[in-house]
Amino acid sequence: MSAKSNKKLRYAIVGCGMISGAHLNALKHIEEAEVVGLCDLIISKAHDRAEEFGVAKEACYKDCKKMFKELKPDVVCVCTPNGQHMPVSVAASKAGCHVLVEKPMAMSPLECKKMIAAAKAAKKKLAIGFQHRFTGKSQYMRKMFDEGVFGDIKFARVQALRRRGIPNWGVFGQKHLQGGGPMIDIGVHALEMCHYAMGAPKPVAAVGMTSTYIGDKKDKVDIVSSWPNWDYKTYTVEDLAIGHVRMETGAVLHIEASFAAHIAPKNEMDYQLMGTKGGCKYGDCEVYTDQNGHMVTIKPDFLNPYGSGGFDGPNSFFRAKLQDFTDHLLNGTPTIIAAENGLMVQQMLSAIYQSAEKGGKEVLIK
Ligand SMILES: NC(=O)c1ccc[n+]([C@@H]2O[C@H](COP(=O)([O-])OP(=O)(O)OC[C@H]3O[C@@H](n4cnc5c(N)ncnc54)[C@H](O)[C@@H]3O)[C@@H](O)[C@H]2O)c1
To answer: N or C: which terminus of the chain has fewer CB atoms within 10 Å of its end residue's CB?
Structure first.
């Protein structure tokens, strides 16, 4: 929770699409924050958000560099499609702003390194929007890891699977604008929270496989789906991706991500850890270990709701991530969403995609 400070940070948002609403809702609950500017290439989207959240119409821009120059915000939330994360973040850092960029950090590790270098050169902070780290379950599992309950982690199984949920807005189906499909879009969530629970070991190599069998098919578009009528004509990403990552610690992480998996009709956003002394399942919030000569399952009865409750409200994980970054900037409290974590996650995602392009050959991560 927030430590006290009298200063208010002046936030600006770049990209006023779907996820900007979660940022703006979160900022409403942060005493030490105010929203001073909104930017979108499609100015009507900025105007709509301005009206919804009580921001002056004059504070809406089409050009983010102009907004940075004229409004001089303290912090910029980058909520554009993935392909614009790097250029917008670098421009914001160069303009002297701290940056919170949405997930995934960018399209490639090289882009992430450019963003880190720009923030460092400007002596400004850069954080990644990994809100799943703030849930009570994530905090509980990480504490278990820190206390050695799992021992040495040997295996992690990660899942981000939708039975049928190809996004029908934005540019999520276009590889050149997003960097990939479900692996980079939703796999990243399960991957980053699992990697956090494992103590963020350094990834050293990966193999991967991707497959497209529904998203680009006209005859599938009108079948029942959470989000029907996606744009099959521009769909160039995978429907299913599988990855296998080796860590410096010797642990192996296996990940499955899909927008359209033929599974029981329940979406999965989960991981399991298996270590030398214990294991866990995030979704069920269970820890498996030995006590007094018995095998036991530990399940907390009550978790702190802060950071757990969806996209809106004081307990939302969006509020938690924006509060974490605000506190970090104002009071120097450590952040759990630092850019270096975003880079490691990106290295895993990119190595999985590269391996898939090479027919499943192992790709080393340097
Ligand atoms: N953390 C989460 O849970 C979560 C959920 C959904 C999306 N996201 C991420 O948020 C980002 C945006 O997703 P979305 O669903 O809001 O997409 P969206 O398509 O609804 O919105 C993106 C907006 O950015 C604007 N834009 C593009 N380039 C721009 C630029 N250079 N300057 C100003 N505006 C620009 C577009 O016009 C569009 O309005 C993506 O990176 C996505 O991965 C995160």
So the answer is: C
